[in-house]
């Protein structure tokens, strides 16, 4: 039996028995059918609104007109930053002065700041990508983006597996564990996605999705270049 030391992080005594992992799977399923489905219905108007906003931006060809729209983008960038900053301070203050902290305590501010922050992120990226230096620096992320569904599902499965095996209770893990794991695994996904897309046209789950969308078989493997 493979043993790992027990410490204040809540590490499992034994890795081989998958009791903790199984309990987390069960808990996730319970949370899904008891809370997630109803919450998804409640959030449907917001989710649909965001999809329509993205569709509108695409129809207006906003992302291809970044250079033309740069003065307006700069204005929106500043406005969204100014709106987000005070809400961020409120959430940090509330977190530091209320234990235990739950996001539901500040649901309104959390939801509004999420919208202002994502607009700030997108506008900032649109402005940065006008510069060749930033295009080069950010290019590796395109591989992960082209396999977004595959990477999202694989990240979820691997995270649940790793944390279920290593921790008796992942709530006991210190905050630095999450960012360290995410950065490390995301970096790995960049290399894997780049390798995969050098041989295939789509990610595995993206290919299955396209089959369901178009209802017909299509080539997955890239054609070899004729020299």
Automatic annotation (TrEMBL):
- In this chain the DUF418 domain maps to 57-216
Q: Where is the chain membrane-spanning?
A: 36-57, 78-96, 108-129, 149-167, 173-192
**Name of encoding gene:** yrkO_1
Q: Which domain of life is it from?
A: Bacteria
Which PANTHER family did the record assign? HYPOTHETICAL MEMBRANE SPANNING PROTEIN (PTHR30590:SF3), INNER MEMBRANE PROTEIN (PTHR30590)
Q: Does the keyword Membrane apply?
A: yes
What keywords sit in the KW lines?
Membrane, Transmembrane, Transmembrane helix
What is the protein name given in its UniProt record?
Answer: DUF418 domain-containing protein
